[in-house]
């Protein structure tokens, strides 16, 4: 930018006008232009789908939903691993205006049951893996064991009418995916087309949950427009500083769970340009990822810190040919400079991305100055506004630390059923208060500093210490507990519980970890438990000093800063 900023506010105008299409309309437009090109490759499952095949099978799936009586605005849950049927259900539903609800695999069954209740799901689609999906489903919906598939009468989740099962294990109350697709085969194509044409780009279309470690997970609701605008970030990665094509979306490797926002972007970005998305596997596996990059000649991907650490630490790393790998987005947490330097062995361009489930993408570009590319700084995407504010809500001068606020068309619509939480985060004038703190420099580059809350950031998940502290406090041997984050080179931070026991009480670390399982998500169970005898240090106001406790834990464990 030519004009230097003097205050922490920037508006980046849109360079490309929005087309006015829904995702379904855009998908069909691209499919008609590239019918025989591969759209999705499911590497571990050895399945490949062209644009024409996906288009035809999506129409079948849509026909099946119409036959079941679903209509625009109804909700459908998708639950399970990364398989072809996940994207089939997702694309087919959203193109007819049915809102897809992404049921995260790491949620306890009690949370899944509440998701069905709160969002009024009418249909749940179960994937073929994990192999116990049928058992999980029947634990959440007991009537699946006794009711018939076409007349579910659920006591706890009365909204639910159908469960479609893509796996081989079946309960009496489930419809097999094969039978469901047969139902949609004979459905009138014109009716399907009319359903697609009635969808507006401002309609709510997808609900993706936050980690839920700070309470019941927030259902982040996006529209067609917000998802498409967020996916436009790929356009910044299509050529380098000299104008040479990078083909970022030509062959894109999708690593994360499809229940996450970043994975949905990975499924959308290549589609918008007629590229191919290669889904690595039902679950993450670093050896599989290395094989995919080599065998499928991957040109682009998005990774988080532990993906990079894992693949660069492979004992046989030098045996692989990664020469096709042009550009990689890296997000979820700050990537240490040393790791960014090592990543040059893997990809030509490692470009940092800052954003969240709610949207608000910031991204480095291959055309950014070298000093930006070598620092944790990001440029705002086209069509967005950014400001840094102080505690009084006023915009700060450049380079002063304050809360990061964003206003853009890629932002979420609302938190589903959470009016107060929506109002607290997203103001009536459209500004979203991220809860993160950072700075904006004179050239409009954002630098992320940290979080306003004392969250632990592990593998891109935000963990609230208080929730785990409440669980550990319930153990009869525990007198006081403080949960802190300690550095970890692979995951950025790990969970450490510092515990004072009651006099004469005895308990082992393993026993306390087992006590936590089932009460919190698996990634929240502490990796480290330290038993301390002295009182915790306190602040001047008498509160436990979490910063000092974290420093003491780091020293006792002999850990070095991950950055």
* CATH first level of the largest domain: Alpha Beta
Secondary-structure class = alpha/beta
Poorly predicted regions are none
Sketch the major β-sheet: 14 strands, mixed
Could you characterize the architecture of this molecule?
This protein is α/β, with parallel strands linked by helices and 563 residues long. The protein has 2 domains: 21-386, ANL, N-terminal domain (Rossmann fold); 456-557, ANL, C-terminal domain (GMP Synthetase, Chain A, domain 3, 2-Layer Sandwich), CATH 3.30.300.30. It has 17 helices and 27 strands. Strands 1-18-19-21-22-17-16-15-14-13-11-12-2-3 form a 14-stranded mixed β-sheet, sandwiched between helices. An 8-stranded mixed β-sheet has the order 8-7-6-4-5-9-10-20, sandwiched between helices. It has a 3-stranded mixed β-sheet with strand order 25-26-27, sandwiched between helices. The longest helix is centred in the first third of the chain and has 17 residues, at 51-67. It is globular and about 70 Å long. It starts with 8 loop residues before the first strand and ends in a 6-residue tail after the last helix. The mean pLDDT is 91.
Topology, pairings included?
Elements: E1 9-12, H1 23-33, E2 38-42, E3 47-50, H2 51-67, E4 75-79, H3 84-95, E5 99-103, H4 109-119, E6 123-126, H5 133-140, E7 162-165, E8 175-176, H6 177-185, H7 189-197, E9 204-209, E10 219-223, H8 224-231, E11 251-254, H9 261-272, E12 276-279, H10 286-295, E13 300-303, H11 305-312, E14 327-330, H12 337-342, E15 349-356, E16 359-363, H13 370-373, E17 377-380, E18 384-389, E19 402-408, E20 414-415, H14 419-425, E21 432-440, E22 446-451, E23 456-458, E24 461-463, H15 465-473, E25 478-488, E26 492-501, H16 509-516, E27 528-531, H17 546-557
Parallel strand pairs: 2-12, 4-5, 4-6, 5-9, 6-7, 7-8, 11-12, 11-13, 13-14, 14-15, 26-27
Antiparallel strand pairs: 1-18, 2-3, 9-10, 10-20, 15-16, 16-17, 17-22, 18-19, 19-21, 21-22, 23-24, 25-26
Helix pairs in contact: 1-2, 2-3, 2-6, 2-7, 8-9
